[in-house]
Amino acid sequence: MITTVSLKDTLLDSAREVFETMVFMALEGLEDDTTSLGEPTLLGSITFKGHLEGCLGVCCDEACAKTIAANMLGITSPEELTENDVSDAMGEIANMVMGAVKARIQNDVGTVEVSIPSVVQGRELKNSLGEGAVQVKIRVNIEEQYRGEFSLQYRESKQQ
Amino acid sequence: MGKSLMIVDDSATMRKIIMRTVRMSGLEFERTEEAGSGVEALEKLKTGPVDVVLCDINMPEMNGTEMVKQARQLPTCASTKIIMVSTESAEDLIKQVMADGADGYITKPFTPEKFQEKLTPLLN
């Protein structure tokens, strides 16, 4: 049995694991933060299906996404990055955080099959599963320099 | 003679990250190449042997598990060590892909130490 409270912790722990291991940046959870993430933002998303169906999203502004990509690739000057590098990096973050979440919940929820990640850039981006979906969202402080948001929306599958 | 390495992942960024992590692990390869899909990897593997293949699982066109099965049918891959590198961590999947012919499994996120631990025994 999973709850939104335990999923918030799971999402934050998973994001921290990925950022500490692959991005070399520290994450700190922010309580009650509703301020804008800045514009434009990049949203990395990955969908899943199985006993649970839904999507996981990772959102931050462009400057943050460039820093994440540079750190992942070991590049000291973000000017060397291509748009594709930044987009790919955000997709991989979504992919790895989803993998880390899945590893933590799969004993409780059963089979979950994950898609290929996708990334979009724009303003006020958000994923929506529509009515009846549960949404868990956490805001984070990244290396005390940027803010980001991780979200998980899901519903129990009718095909169980 | 130096060893050769192929990295198979549909994400160009992840291929660069894996290459960087392999270098950070202290492991040295004389020749390295990349493939963006299972299909491209098989085409390259048909042309000659590679010592180590690091292969993603969740890829479009042909996933990593299918790539391993088909690679094991190739005469050029008889002694190739194939290590899966994936966010997937379900025990059943890992058992299945090992049964299909993979020699090891590394879950993402990974560290240079993890690559060293998994690859060193296979290279000696």
Any descriptors?
heterodimer; A: 160 residues; alpha+beta; Chemotaxis protein chec; seven-stranded antiparallel β-sheet; 7 strands; 37% helix; globular; B: 124 residues; alpha/beta; Rossmann fold; five-stranded parallel β-sheet; 5 strands; 41% helix
Provide a descriptive summary of the structure in words.
The complex is a heterodimer of chains A (160) and B (124). Chain A has 160 residues and is α+β, with helices and mostly antiparallel strands. Chain A has helices at 4-23, 62-73, 83-109; strands at 27-30, 41-50, 52-61, 112-114, 118-122, 134-142, 146-156. Chain A has one domain: CheC-like (Chemotaxis protein chec, 3-Layer(aba) Sandwich), CATH 3.40.1550.10. Chain A is 37% helix and 32% strand. In chain A, helix 2 crosses helix 3. Chain A is globular and about 45 Å long. In chain A, 41% of the residues are buried. Chain B has one domain: Rossmann fold (3-Layer(aba) Sandwich). Helices cover 41% and strands 19% of the residues of chain B. Chain B is built from five helices and five strands, in the order βαβαβαβαβα. A five-stranded parallel beta sheet of chain B has the order 2-1-3-4-5, with helices on both faces. The two termini of chain B are 13 Å apart. Chains A and B meet through helix 1, helix 2 and helix 3 of A and helix 1 of B.
